[in-house]
Design goal:
Belongs to the NadD family. The chain is of the alpha/beta class. 34% of the residues lie in helices and 17% in strands. Helix 4 packs parallel to helix 6.
Length: 200
């Protein structure tokens, strides 16, 4: 195992869903299951981050978020990991860089909700992410049009593959990305925190 991550046979495809998961919720589960099916992934790793550089307030303690994520996401093809804490990476680009060096024969796909695509250009070295791995974007409640008109979507418009070809995304050389409309749940981490149902 590498930093607590499981062995992966050469040639398999792993989807990476990163975030603070503060808290994890059914929306995360939904996009994970859809990604497994629609992108033809062999497995998905939830990368529970120590924090979000774009947010002022720190998340709940990592152990609490990890326990909640593992209790919620029980799919046999999904691993919940604190890889970024163990590896000491702070930003997604360096996390992907390290994973690719540790698993040179594995194909990775970065997964994100459409809400993240809208502000993806604010991420550190976001263009490196696009150039390193295919990106699968799944619709989340909110302004889908805003996500499709995001800076990243415009800059990489010619690298977008049609949703009908989504199962081939992992086989594409980066940059390549695909936007999928899926059935949506309105649940979100911020809404749960605001409701008081996630207390630390």
């Amino acid at each position: 195992m590498t930093f607590g991550l499981p062995y992966v046979p050469a040639g398999q495809v792993v989807g990476l869903l990163g975030g603070s998961f503060d808290p994890p919720h059914t929306g995360h589960v939904q996009i994970t299951k859809e990604a497994l099916k629609r992108f033809g992934l062999d497995r998905v790793w939830w990368l529970v981050s120590p924090g979000n550089p774009l947010k002022n307030n720190g998340p709940a303690p990592l152990g609490l978020r990890m326990d909640a994520a593992r209790a919620l996401m029980t799919h046999p093809k999904v691993t919940v990991s604190d890889f970024e804490v163990q590896a000491g990476t702070k930003y997604t680009a360096e996390t992907i860089r390290l994973l690719q060096s540790r698993y040179p024969k594995v194909r990775f796909v970065w997964l994100m909700g459409a809400d993240n695509l809208a502000q993806f250009h604010q991420w550190k070295d976001w263009q490196e992410i696009m150039e390193r791995v295919p990106v699968g974007v799944l619709a989340r409640p909110g302004d889908r049009l805003g996500a499709r008109q995001a800076k990243a979507a415009r800059m990489y418009a010619s690298d977008r593959i049609r949703s009908e070809a989504s199962r081939g995304l992992a086989l594409c050389d980066a940059p390549a990305w695909c936007f999928l409309n899926i059935p949506m749940t309105a649940e979100s981490s911020s809404r749960i925190r605001e409701s008081g149902h996630w207390t630390v």
